[in-house]
Amino acid sequence: MIRDWEDFLAPYEQAVSELKVKLRGIRKQYREQSKHVPIEFVTGRVKPIDSILTKSKLRGIDLARLEDEMSDIAGLRIMCQFVEDIHQVVDLLRTRKDMKVIIERDYITNKKASGYRSYHLVIEYPVQLIDGEKIILAEIQIRTLAMNFWATIEHSLNYKYQGEFPVEISERLRRSAEAAYQLDEEMSNIREEIQEAQRLFSHGKGQRSRRDQPQSLEEDQK
């Protein structure tokens, strides 16, 4: 039995904090090199205690085995513009030396019955504590903005209906999931045009920014 949840969750909180910084750092490096940025934004959270207890009871996980058998206590989400970006991010994370991918679940190629699509990685991540290194499990979900919109809505409805969706709602969710995927496919078809427009827009903003800067100390003091 876990007596001190604050101590138990502290390494997970540290891992989420560090991973958010690192993943956002990847995004910054792409921007600084004027390359297409495959990461739109990153979020992260530590699973609340009540959610841990509910899931452990549902899955039959002994609390003494949480560290080994519950892989999403530390969870991160990476949002991408295009499906192609997801695979680029996955390839990038596989090569990192500061984490080890141990499980991959491709729910894009193999969508769930509900219509859910995403790419999940379970990683081992070393956290440096004052009494030594601790390897913890973390889950990274990588999805497009359209996939994330659908998943957020489905999660809210799942909370309301406790997983027992009315038939009509289930069918509407499946149809909307397909619509979201069709949107992703259409965006992929014109990806090069979108990226070129984004480069031109960013370049234009840079030009305007430079024009707006004072040309000399005297001008700045006017």
Could you explain the architecture of this structure?
This protein has 222 residues and is of the alpha+beta class. It is 55% helix and 20% strand. Helix 5 runs antiparallel to helix 6. It is flat. It starts with a helix and ends with a helix. The model is unreliable at 216-222 (pLDDT under 50).
What fraction of residues sit in β-strands?
Answer: 15-25%
Q: Which secondary-structure class do the elements indicate?
A: alpha+beta
Major beta-sheet overview? 5 strands, mixed
**Overall pLDDT level:** 89
Annotation field: number of helices: 8
For the largest sheet, list the strands in their spatial order. 1-2-5-4-3
Low-confidence runs of at least 5 consecutive residues: 216-222
Helix content: 40-55%
Order of helices and strands: HEHHEHEEEHHHH
Q: What Rg do the Cα atoms give?
A: 21 Å
Q: Which overall shape is indicated by the principal axes computed on the Cα atoms?
A: flat
